[in-house]
Design goal:
Elements (H helix, E strand, L loop, with lengths): L1 E6 L4 H20 L3 E6 L5 H4 L7 E5 L2 E2 L2 E3 L5 E4 L2 H6 L4 E5 L7 H7 L4 E5 L16 H15 L4 H17 L8 H9 L1 E5 L11 E4 L10 E5 L5 E6 L3 E5 L3 E10 L4 E10 L5 E10 L3 E7 L5 E10 L2 E14 L18 E7 L12 E4 L2 E4 L5 E8 L3 E6 L6 E5 L6
Helix pairs in contact: 1-5, 5-6, 6-7
Length: 412
């Protein structure tokens, strides 16, 4: 199946957009085995798009307004005209484009597009240093929906993934508060049109289970030690700690509704380099079972992925397990006795600013032979000092040196 990525790159906003579109859409589609037409830069134009009328999904990051979506150097891609009417038929058109969700995308759905998604207002995203963490939650939220479409979710389910991703970042304490109003704005102006039950990828009714009578929560992984003794059975979402010399035994049987056979693919990934450590694919006929074992030889974090493949299409039956291999690590133990600060001791805090009241970073502060340098807030601290009178000196190149006395009664 062919899909199209629209990646203009000619100014700051599209420069960020093309990066995240490639990372979150193009690379992901390739990984799943889709044929992808990546229209990057000067190729992001109608002449090139015309060559891919057979594509089922068109998505990307482009500038737009109520009745227009443009590509490289603001050349027209979609507008309310006969070309767009003909091109959009029987397609999913999901675009990160300002304002196009207010008129153009609903119009395209009325002209025969299966599903259109976009934003009815200006899409706002924050930036700092390219490609940066500030921009990431905005693009990850949008492309969560594209990923869901590629994995076989319905249009409505995929749209819900967009909203869920925005909600996740809005609740995340690690996301800067100052960008959250823009995340909320984008979330609230996301819109979906067309058949909510439409799927980009057909999902065959096939289930992978491991001995369903004994382990009904399949898929499951059986962990065995070096003596082939079962250590435990783990299900999707588990974190499994294993030792060198143990094995992960993946056993499978197929409940096959209307299908004669199915291919099952297991991949073990090195969680650091993201490369395949082990890849195994086998075919199971209806009513039969197969299994294989993965030896644990390296001390790595790994992820095990199960994928069902039918008629060369990846099926949305992927499950993840965290595999942590562990071994004895020689450890030195050191006992440290901390003495409590005596009651007659305290601390001195300097707050250094210039004439305008702006914090001065890098000023050298000396207190009776003790030295410290002010941080970016203009603060220098001397801890655990005796409470008594002190002479101090503050120096900074380009500024006059300041000297003074801290009196015992200044400690409060």
């Amino acid at each position: 199946m062919k899909v199209v990525a629209l990646r203009p790159d000619y100014e700051e906003a599209t420069h960020y957009g093309q990066y995240w579109c490639e990372k979150l859409y193009v690379d992901f589609a390739k990984e799943l085995g889709f044929e992808i037409a990546d229209l990057y830069g000067d190729k992001c134009c109608r002449i090139e798009l015309e060559k891919h009328k057979d594509a089922k999904l068109v998505s990307g990051v482009c500038h737009g307004k109520e009745d227009l979506i443009v590509g490289q150097n603001n050349t027209v891609l979609f507008r309310k005209d006969d070309w767009t009417k003909d091109f959009c038929k029987e397609k999913f058109i999901w675009m990160l484009s300002c304002l196009a969700g207010s008129e153009l995308l609903p119009w395209m759905e009325k002209q025969g597009a299966v599903s259109t998604m976009g934003y009815k207002d200006v899409f706002i995203f924050a930036v700092s240093k390219y490609p940066n963490s500030y921009a990431e939650p905005f693009f990850r939220s949008h492309f969560a929906g594209i990923k869901a479409l590629l994995q076989g979710k319905t249009a409505k389910e995929a749209f819900n993934e967009v909203i869920k991703s925005f909600d996740k970042y809005l609740k995340d304490p690690n996301v800067p508060e100052r960008i959250k109003p823009y995340l909320l704005h984008d979330r609230n102006c996301a819109v979906l049109f067309g058949n909510p039950d439409a799927r980009l990828v057909k999902v065959p009714d096939v289930h992978f289970v491991r001995n369903p009578d004994e382990y009904p929560k399949a898929p499951a992984i059986e962990v065995r030690d070096e003596n082939d003794k079962i250590i435990g059975i783990y299900y999707a979402g588990s974190t499994i700690k294993v030792k060198e010399g143990w094995t992960l035994r993946v056993c499978g049987s197929i409940i096959n509704e209307g299908k004669d056979k199915v291919k099952v693919k297991f991949v073990v990934y090195d969680d650091i380099s993201k490369t395949n450590v082990i890849e195994k694919e086998f075919e199971i006929e209806a009513g039969y079972s197969k299994s294989y074992s993965i030896p644990i030889t390296d001390i790595k974090e790994m992820r095990l992925s199960q994928r069902l493949i039918y008629d060369n299409e990846v099926i949305d039956k992927e499950e993840w397990f965290m595999i942590e291999t562990v071994k004895h690590i020689p450890t030195a133990y050191v006992k440290v006795v901390l003495k409590r600060i005596a009651e007659n001791r305290g601390r001195i805090v300097f707050n250094v600013v210039d004439e305008a009241g702006k914090a001065v970073q890098g000023a050298l502060v000396e207190v009776d032979g003790m030295k410290s340098v002010t941080n970016e807030s203009g603060v220098a601290v001397f801890n655990n000092v005796e409470i008594k009178d002190y002479k101090y000196k503050v120096m900074k190149e380009g500024f006059e040196t300041v000297e003074g006395i801290i009196k015992k009664e200044d400690f409060i």
